[in-house]
Specification:
359 residues; alpha+beta; Porin; 3 domains
Length: 359
């Protein structure tokens, strides 16, 4: 210092003080860089918070507002949300390794220059699905795709009766009835006869053992939906009321099953024709009795079948039975015939193994 008291001499660039100042600033810069290196190393090990990551974007409504993202231990939080205290609730998939601050800043700045609205677009990492613990690297498989896009089940998979009525199914059937109601022959008009009721009343108690063979699978429209089966049967019939006492026959027939989709109950109608032998009393002089032992028989029935399972079922309904010799004993012995009907019950048991469910 020189001159009067209180006056400061101007600083010259070449003075010792200016050189000392420049040296001091250089030492400070080197110290800052030396401190930044350990911080970067510690951030790579996850020991301290990851440094600032700036994705500077332009808000189209307010040009002065920028959008910056801060990273805290791999969690990315918008700067605006962090200022409001909501950053702790907004977490995204952790990064594999923390980004380097200057490289991230440079990439974000270049993206902003190329696209002015890049700050409004979510990054690829922010839209990644969050993985459950222990499921890293897993991808949605076929099961998840099917659960997201469920397909309607095939109709026959929900049709329980397709495992009961199907082509080539064999069953054993045991049926019986009590037939006390006497009527004229229903088809007299086809033979040119009148509906004349004979003067002798009968009651028949048939027991029929059959083998049923289903010819086809279930099909047909609406109320006619069902299938067909054929039956071969042997019958023993007791006659508790009438001139004769017993009747043996062999009959064959066909049945239509009307099969709903999910009901256990299925209606049916059937018809059978056969040959038989009866202990005729007409030749012995009994009035209105049968004219000869050899006869024909017609059986008609209708009812419902209740399926306990694909193997067992019960049935119940009404049954009509006709016995006559078709005028073979006339004119020596008149053909009166027997025409009765009444309640009917039966049981069916499947032969063989259960049909596997269709897929």
């Amino acid at each position: 210092m020189s001159g009067r008291l209180g006056e400061v001499a101007p600083l010259e660039l070449g003075s010792k003080f200016s050189r000392l100042t420049v040296s001091t600033l250089g030492i400070a810069v080197l110290a800052v860089l030396a401190m930044a290196a350990p911080l970067q190393a510690q951030s790579d090990q996850g020991l301290i918070l990851v440094s600032l990551e700036c994705d500077a974007g332009v808000n189209p409504q307010k040009n002065e507002t920028s959008y910056a993202t801060f990273g805290f231990r791999g969690l990315r939080t918008p700067a605006v949300a962090a200022c409001n205290g909501a950053g702790a609730e907004t977490d995204v998939l952790p990064q594999a390794s923390p980004p380097k601050p200057f490289a991230t800043f440079g990439a974000s700045w270049e993206a902003r220059d190329s696209d002015p609205f890049s700050g409004l677009k979510p990054s690829a990492q922010s839209v990644e699905p969050r993985l459950e613990s222990g499921a890293e690297g897993s991808k949605p498989g076929k099961d998840s795709e099917e659960s997201m896009n469920p397909r309607l089940r095939d109709d026959h998979l929900t049709d329980r009766n397709r495992n009961i009525y199907y082509k080539n199914k064999l069953e054993f059937s045991l049926e019986g009835g009590w037939l006390p109601i006497n009527i004229p022959f229903p088809f007299d008009f086809l033979l040119g006869d009148g509906y004349n009721f004979p003067g002798l009343y009968y009651t028949l108690v048939p027991i029929i053992a059959s083998v049923r063979w289903q010819l086809d699978d279930v099909g047909g429209p609406w109320i006619l939906r069902g299938n067909w089966d054929v039956t071969a049967s042997g019958s023993v019939t007791a006659i508790p009321r009438g001139a004769e006492t017993r009747y043996f026959s062999y009959i064959m027939g066909i049945r239509r099953n009307f099969v709903p989709r999910r009901w256990r109950v299925a209606p049916y109608v059937d018809g059978q024709l056969g040959l038989g032998e009866i202990d005729a009393k007409g030749p012995l002089g009994v009035s209105y009795a049968q004219g000869q032992n050899f006869t024909f028989t017609l059986n008609l029935g209708s009812g419902v079948r209740y399926n306990l399972s694909p193997q067992y079922s019960f049935e119940a309904g009404m049954h009509y039975m006709h016995i006559s010799n078709l005028y073979l004993s006339q004119p020596k012995f008149l053909n009166y015939g027997i025409n009765v009907y009444g309640p009917w019950v039966g049981i069916n048991v499947r032969f063989g193994k259960h049909r596997p469910a269709e897929e």
